[in-house]
Amino acid sequence: MRFSALAIVGALVGARFAYAGACWKAETCRDNHFETKQNMVSFAVNFCAGTLSQPSAYERAGVASAFSIGSWGGNITSCLNAFIGIVNACHGTVNGGTADSGLAHLAVSFGDCEYL
């Protein structure tokens, strides 16, 4: 399972795909700590693998946090697309973002200035 999830993430990080979400409008918070893009990708794999059968989930990894509500339909790829989409579109410019996929909503914060 871990190998296949990492292979999927590797493909997603390099691929361009439609991102159905929004970066937060606030600029990156000053004097705060943020997880690296690489750490956020690892967080995505762990978070998505653990949320497939949950109606809602909240996790922290270092100073980052993620919240999901709704159903991913047991499909890790949908969750990973949303999470990695937020990371690719928003990391380095703002502190996080949101994405919707079917019946699920995801919010991801990269640092400690806005906890979910």
TrEMBL record:
Domain of life of the native organism: Eukaryota
Keyword terms of this UniProt record: Signal
Alphabetized Pfam families for the sequence: LDL
Signal sequence annotation: 1-20
Signal recorded as keyword: yes
Protein name: Uncharacterized protein
Organism from which the protein derives: Tricholomella constricta
